[in-house]
Amino acid sequence: MKVVVLCSGGLDSVTALHAAARSHEILAVLSAHYGARHNDREIPFAARHAAALGLPHRIVSLAFVAECFTSALLPSGAPVPEGHYEDQSMRQTVVPFRNALLLSVATGLAESIGAEAVVIAAHGGDHAIYPDCREAFMRAMDEAMRLGTYPGIRLLRPFIDLDKAGIVRRAAALGVDLGQTWSCYRGQALHCGACGTCIERREAFQLAGVPDPTPYQHQPPLPPRPPPHSGE
Amino acid sequence: MKVVVLCSGGLDSVTALHAAARSHEILAVLSAHYGARHNDREIPFAARHAAALGLPHRIVSLAFVAECFTSALLPSGAPVPEGHYEDQSMRQTVVPFRNALLLSVATGLAESIGAEAVVIAAHGGDHAIYPDCREAFMRAMDEAMRLGTYPGIRLLRPFIDLDKAGIVRRAAALGVDLGQTWSCYRGQALHCGACGTCIERREAFQLAGVPDPTPYQHQPPLPPRPPPHSGE
């Protein structure tokens, strides 16, 4: 299938890119810079993997997000909170309707260049605190993409049955160097090791039983995992 | 209801803006510049009406659309075709998935500033040649907006039961100066009078029985209206 792959340069989407390269014809790798603190850290990794695979890489600017939207991920926002994603404090890191925006850009690009589908690395461990990660949203968006384009562009979510540890295992099996990916929302020189996404990254390697190649600024003990929440 | 109003500066959305100002609390008027030939002509009209109503106006840049997407509306595209919208040639003027993109931006802004809904001037005469104008797409997008945001942002389409002539009548009733709106896809100093959107504009005034205040470059006789197409 001819596809556009959304790739931020993070662990999930870089793995999705390498997986897609084995099963699809990738017409473009798409990254978006929306003015978040960590975009400058992660997008170069997307560029590196696209280049290694010999694929065209498009970086689009969504600068208006930082100008008009509110989120702790944006320079205008509160500091990035620490702890588990499930904590209410992590709601601050939501960029409103980000996935819809990214999928709309990817779908317009896909239709423009003759692709039939868009690949997003959404996974089963994605957080119910983010409304635009939930299954029901993704199904509605898939419908909107199919109905709102001439070729009926589809949404592919190859990792939907995996959690993040499963993605780390998949990356190891594919030979993807996860040291060349970025997760930390703080966007400093090194991964901080303590924000929600660093905790999740460290845990995923631990649960997967795969050595973590990431240099962290600090490695505070991993907090106990909160009990799984009860659905959406 | 607290709303964000999408307003391009065209006849439909300027009328929708004035109608919304009577029935809603408008938190922001939103225009997008996506590099189309006519954006520079239409957005100043949106700004003028927002200012006249004392409302904050946000203009976001979607420059990547002109860089990455294909359409006759974009500088990279073929010339804007003449004739009726229903003609197959007008398919060239589709900007892929534009409405989804605009609604995603508006929804993220709405959630960020505490609005509950987004107003779009989609109307019953919108063209089935544009997939992202169709009823089924709009319903799916409404679902995606509701499910993908914390407050469950809604999509309002107050003109969905009107055609363009009906909007011209509504504007006349509201006292909106439609001379201060822009339709022509060619984006020259004056409305060309002959492209699909100029033909539609001229016809709408004629059908509404409202004097057309628009200065046109040419006013070729209006072509006969094609028979209504058979649904979606």
Poorly predicted spans of chain A: none
Percent of sequence in beta strands of chain A:
5-15%
Distance between the termini of chain A: 31 Å
CATH homologous superfamily of chain A?
A: HUPs
The CATH architecture of chain A is: 3-Layer(aba) Sandwich
E-strand count of chain A: 5
How many helices of chain A? The count is 7
What structural class do the secondary elements of chain A suggest?
Answer: alpha/beta
User: What is the arithmetic mean of pLDDT of chain A?
Assistant: 89
Largest sheet of chain A: 5 strands, parallel
Q: What oligomeric arrangement do these chains adopt? A: homodimer
Could you give the order of strands across the largest sheet of chain A? 3-2-1-4-5
Structure, explained:
Two copies of one chain form a homodimer. Chain A has 232 residues and is of the alpha/beta class. Chain A has one domain (2-208): HUPs (Rossmann fold, 3-Layer(aba) Sandwich). Chain A is 37% helix and 11% strand. Chain A has a five-stranded parallel beta sheet, with helices on both faces. In chain A, strand 4, helix 5 and strand 5 form a beta-alpha-beta unit. The longest helix of chain A is centred in the middle third of the chain and has 16 residues, at 98-113. Chain A is globular and about 50 Å long. In chain A, 52% of the residues are buried. The mean pLDDT of chain A is 89. The interface between A and B is large, with 43 and 43 residues.
